[in-house]
Write a structure and sequence with these properties.
This protein has helices at about 5-15, 20-40, 40-55, 60-65, 70-85, 125-135, 150-165, 185-190, 205-215, 240-250, 265-280, 290-295, 345-355, 370-375; strands at about 95-100, 105-110, 115-120, 140-145, 175, 200-205, 230-235, 260-265, 285-290, 300-305, 310-315, 320, 335-340, 360-365, 380-385, 405, 415, 420-430. With about 425 residues, the chain is of the alpha/beta class. The chain is globular, with a radius of gyration of 24 Å.
Length: about 425
């Protein structure tokens, strides 16, 4: 990849976009939405080729789930795109304004960042989400997907560029996809070192990808985080509610970053809750239990054969294992979960803060004092009371599409919508004032 040639073209496109109003950008995005709908069969066909290659390479089911596109997911992509169209254009928004004592007028207004790069894994829906948010906020975008989703991304970007080229005022040069070759990451190094050419880079994927970008980037980075999310079942919890929420947060879609990876249980309810949880999971989740929870859960362990020796199996299907130190703080992204029993809410908070990734945490409790303490003391971008962590999502927050979940504390935190791709500048009007 010729990074300078690519970014020069993107910079020129961003300057064209910066002059467009909301109606022009919305018309272009609507053309893209219609084109995606019209060309969905070609996109799904390309995706099937990616899926076949993934199967041949031995990808896990959870990763294949992230990669897969079908008509329902195409519908969701188009709906998210139209949500972005319906949002207020942030460019030009006056954040603050005042007059100085000498009569100058100062306004702080939102402006695009310019050229944005996103490095992401597996999920081809991110291609459309990232493009739509960038385009609506007046930015050009460089997409670097993974080799596993390359054919899907090529098909999607082809549709986007053709749609933009076919609409009056469309800026088809505002999106570029890096040609990806398996085992060759030299293009990533070029992106991370494109000082002065790329205004911000966003990593979206697993822990290894994110750490590589944060560690090696010389361009500004908005850090998204892996999702080691916890559900804390307090001593004052409604246990039936806790089971329903645990099932949703772990099983509905375990391959995503807002799924829980650890359930923390107060010791006063552990004897009652853990058997309820196992029954709710019904053999669908492998449980890595600490010593206290293992002692409770092993009571249902069955024996196999004639030896009478207990097997590490609870019920006919559920696998129950002793948790290791590596299990606590691990992002499984699969039908696995660790269980931790604590003696107090203070211990739960301390444990979560020392093992999470600052993504999303939830407490199940009927105690207002405990829920407020939890929300005050937990260090995460999203902290829930009596609700599933699965709601940490740009669409669920009303942002339409999202760029990812930021787990850092500067510029952006939590689900990143359209305003994250803007900065501000001050516009000062005077009448000849000098200092």
């Amino acid at each position: 990849m010729d990074i300078k040639k690519t970014t020069d073209s993107l910079r020129e496109a961003s300057q064209k976009l910066a002059l467009q109003n909301a109606c022009q950008k919305n018309a272009a995005l609507e053309a893209v939405a219609k084109a995606l709908d019209k060309n969905r069969d070609a996109i799904i066909a390309a995706n099937k080729d990616d899926l076949h290659a993934g199967l041949e390479a031995g990808m896990s089911n959870s990763i294949l789930d992230r990669l897969m596109l079908d008509h329902k997911r195409i519908d969701g992509i188009i709906a998210s795109l139209r949500d972005v169209i319906g949002q207020t254009d942030p460019v030009g928004e006056e954040v603050a304004g005042w007059k100085t004592p000498n009569g100058m007028s100062i306004r702080q207004v939102r402006v695009p960042l310019g050229v944005v790069a996103i490095i992401y894994e597996n999920r081809p829906n991110v291609t459309v989400d990232a493009f739509s948010l960038a385009y609506k906020s007046g930015n050009a975008i460089l997409l670097r997907g993974s080799s596993s989703s390359y054919l899907s991304n090529v098909a999607i970007v082809k549709v986007i560029k053709e749609a933009l080229a076919g609409v009056e005022g469309g800026v088809s040069e505002a999106i570029e996809l890096v040609e990806v070759h398996e085992h060759d990451h030299s293009d990533v190094d070029q992106i991370l070192n494109a000082v002065g050419m790329i205004d911000v880079c966003l990593p979206r994927g697993g822990k290894k990808l994110i750490q590589n970008v944060v560690k090696n980037a010389r361009v500004p980075v908005i850090e998204t985080g892996s999702g080691v999310c916890h559900l804390y079942v307090d001593e004052f919890a409604n246990l039936e509610m806790a089971c329903r929420i645990a099932e949703n947060a772990k099983i509905q879609r375990p391959s995503v970053c807002n799924a829980i990876e650890c359930i923390v249980v107060h010791t006063k309810v552990a004897q009652e809750f853990l058997p309820m949880l196992e029954k709710t999971f019904a053999g669908r989740v492998k449980l890595h239990a600490d010593e206290k929870s293992y002692e409770i859960l092993k009571k249902c362990v069955v024996t196999k054969g004639t030896t009478g020796v207990p097997e590490p199996v609870q019920g006919p299907h559920t696998i129950l294992l002793h948790a290791t130190e590596e299990d606590f703080g691990n992002e499984y992204l699969d039908y696995e979960c660790c269980i931790k029993v604590v003696d107090s809410i203070e211990e739960a908070i301390s444990y979560i803060n020392s093992h999470n990734t600052k993504h999303s945490e939830s407490i199940i409790s009927e105690s207002r004092a405990n829920t407020r303490l939890f929300q005050s003391m937990i260090d995460a971008s999203c902290v829930y009371v009596n609700a599933s962590t699965r709601f940490t999502d740009g669409g669920e927050f009303g942002f339409g599409a999202e760029l990812g979940i930021s787990t850092q504390k500067l510029h952006a935190r939590g689900p990143m919508g359209i305003k994250v791709l803007t900065t501000t500048k001050y516009l000062i009007d005077g009448e000849g004032q000098i200092r």
